[in-house]
Amino acid sequence: MLSGKHLLGLEQAKKSDIEIILDTADSFKEIIDRDVKKVPTLRGKSVVNLFYEPSTRTRTSFELAGKYLSADTINFASSGSSVQKGETLKDTAKTLEMMGVDAVVIRHSSSGAANYLCNHINASIINAGDGTHEHPTQALLDMLTVRERKGTLSGLKVAIFGDILHSRVARSNIFGFTKMGSEVFVAGPSTLMPVDIEKTGAKLAKTIDEAIKDADVVIALRIQLERQQNGLFPTVREYAKFFGLDRDKLALAKPDALLLHPGPVNRGVELTSEVIDGNQSVINYQVKSGVAVRMAVLYHLIGGSR
Ligand code: CP
Q1: Which of 7, 102, 152, 240 has the fewest CB atoms within 10 Å, measured from its CB?
Q2: Is the peptide bond before 194 cis (omega within 30 degrees of 0)?
Q3: pLDDT, position 233
Q4: Which residues in 59-156 belong to E strands, given as ranges?
Q5: How far is the CA of 164 from the centre of ligand 1 (A)?
Q6: pLDDT tens string 135-169
Q7: Which of 51, 58, 62, 126 maximizes ligand 1 atoms within 8 Å of its Cβ, making it the mutation to test the pocket?
Q8: Among residues 219, 227, 161, 157, which one has the least CA distance to residue 193?
Q9: What is the C-alpha separation between 142 and 169, in angstroms, rounded?
Q10: Distance CA 261, CA 279 (A)
């Protein structure tokens, strides 16, 4: 990842690269707490956030990360742009490249969209979520959040539950946490579980209770209603009853277990409000880690360390 100029996913990433990003992000967290949140590290660099899908956390934190490092950041949403007149992804990206951008942060509904752009433009490409493939900066910020509280990622039991089938967050987290020495268990409705999930390095638990039992880290996933095909689960209410996490289920994990969710949360579906706002939840801290991780990624891909 650091030997190239792109961040496309964690499947091919080296453990040492993940460690460098997390260490750099750790040091950048201090900048976010300053009164004047600005260092000159990326002065003269430009970053475009090219988002074909909605986002609050990822797009805003990439924008702030670039700004805190003094890069010029531009947000590009497909709605209101020439994409609506039929311009292709390649032509749109090429147009932005000719304006001199150093990095393109892309979110797209098609798996492989970020990889595709690498072959067509010279800027650094950062995958901010592509279809059901990967969301690498989400996993990096999840790992940063956990490492900060547990001191290590090695030897932890991590339970990921919910809609694994459609989750790029789950895939990136499985690749990331297993590389760092955690044992990752996944659970969810069988209709929302890829048949070859264990090829990713995760262990398939028969039930959510089995996955969560004695876990150090519990990661809940959002039900991605925008990607559902008919018939994968009967109703949201039924899903919440059988696969949602409440205080009693969370009590199966270790008493000091951390609860994560990438957001946005469907309150009352994958998690009850009681556990979202409870003292084991680090969902709000994940957001702060997101800015620090994205600062680290921009720094390593287009900044001083190159
Ligand atoms: N976790 C995440 O990617 O959130 P957004 O869709 O708000 O960016």
Answers
A1: 152
A2: no
A3: 74
A4: 72-77, 103-108, 124-130
A5: 16
A6: 999 999 999 999 999 999 999 999 999 999 999 99
A7: 58
A8: 161
A9: 10
A10: 14
